[in-house]
Amino acid sequence: MGKRGTLAAREGATPQAFIARGNSMCAELKEKLDRLASDSMEPEERKRLMDDVRGQIDRVKKERDRMIGYLAAETADIDEIETRFREIERVNKKKFHIVPPAPANAQIDYMEKKARHFARGLSVCKIFWVFFLGSVLGVYIERIWCMVRYGFYEPRVASIYGPFNPVYGIGAAVLTVALYRFRNRSPMLSFVFGAIVGSAVEYMCSWVQEIVFGSASWDYSMKPFNLNGRICLLYSVYWGVLGVLWIKELYPRMAALVLKIPNRIGRPLSAVLAVVLAADLLLTGAIVIRWMNRVKGEPPRTAVGEFFDEHYPDERLEKRFSNLEFVSDAPE
């Protein structure tokens, strides 16, 4: 804020100077417009005056736009400073908490910088850990939600081994990348961008699943304000709320957890987990494709297909992926 304010003052763009200069230029323009409104001018003189007024209007508009830019920058800085202060104040309040408050994002930024952590900022390692932890935690959160709301247990996984669902991981990673710049800003920005980005991710995941695997894990066709049954207004609002909860509550907790991983093992551990997760998801994709073809009545054409049929029968996969349904006609 200080640099922008100093620059504005040095360029004579302070509010007082802007108002005085604007009043002067507008008064001059009004006088010229009065002259143009009269019929006592020669054509050449009128043309020169019109060109002069046109150029002066452009200069006034540029001056206005520059001042709007300064004010927008100052507003953003003030919002960030106020938000950072309130979050640090919230964390430091001495009162009883059933659940300890999440660390302020400003504290996470400081600790990552101080430790020169391997996963600081929006590094590749940070995004991977967000994806990995999101893939795991999302499964358990939805399991609990399913038990509380519907009273029955579902795996809610999307991998043949391990408690992984990359949809949650992708959502967590994309939300982090999209909302990271707003981590120290007011919650409304996180809500708006969370709704937009989350809905886009949900739509894309649904489309890819249907195109590649000929299956669908959710359908909002019966809900109002839906788009091709892939997203709907209600869940877009949920994504907005999740955006705020994510960047203000869940992400800082996750980042604090990742901060506990020592630098000396951080990168090797990230590489090993990435290989394991990639292998699991690739195997899952191959098994589901074979399952899809088996449902269509196609016999195995390779030894791998025979192995999948023997070790991953329909009963096992239906139990593992209980909320997956194949669709007969995938869109073009």
Walkthrough of the structure:
With 332 residues, the protein is mainly alpha-helical. The chain has two domains: 2-92; 109-326, no CATH class. The protein is 71% helix and 2% strand. It has eleven helices and four strands. It has helices at residues 2-10, 15-37, 43-92, 105-115, 124-150, 166-179, 187-213, 233-259, 263-295, 303-311, 314-320, and strands at residues 215-216, 226-227, 231-232, 325-326. Strands 1-4 form a two-stranded antiparallel sheet. A hairpin with a 3-residue loop joins strand 2 and strand 3. The radius of gyration is 29 Å and the shape is elongated. It starts with a helix and ends in a 6-residue tail after the last strand.
User: What do the pLDDT scores average to?
Assistant: 86
Strand content: under 5%
C-alpha termini separation: 51 Å
Order of helices and strands: HHHHHHHEEEHHHHE
Basic shape = elongated
- Spans of 5+ residues with little confidence (pLDDT < 50)? none
Could you state the oligomeric state of the chains shown? single chain
Q: How many domains would you count in the coordinates?
A: 2
Quickly give the structural class: mainly alpha
The helix content, as a percent range, equals over 70%
Strand order, sheet with most strands = 1-4
Q: Whole-number radius of gyration? A: 29 Å
Largest sheet data = 2 strands, antiparallel
Number of strands: 4
Number of helices: 11
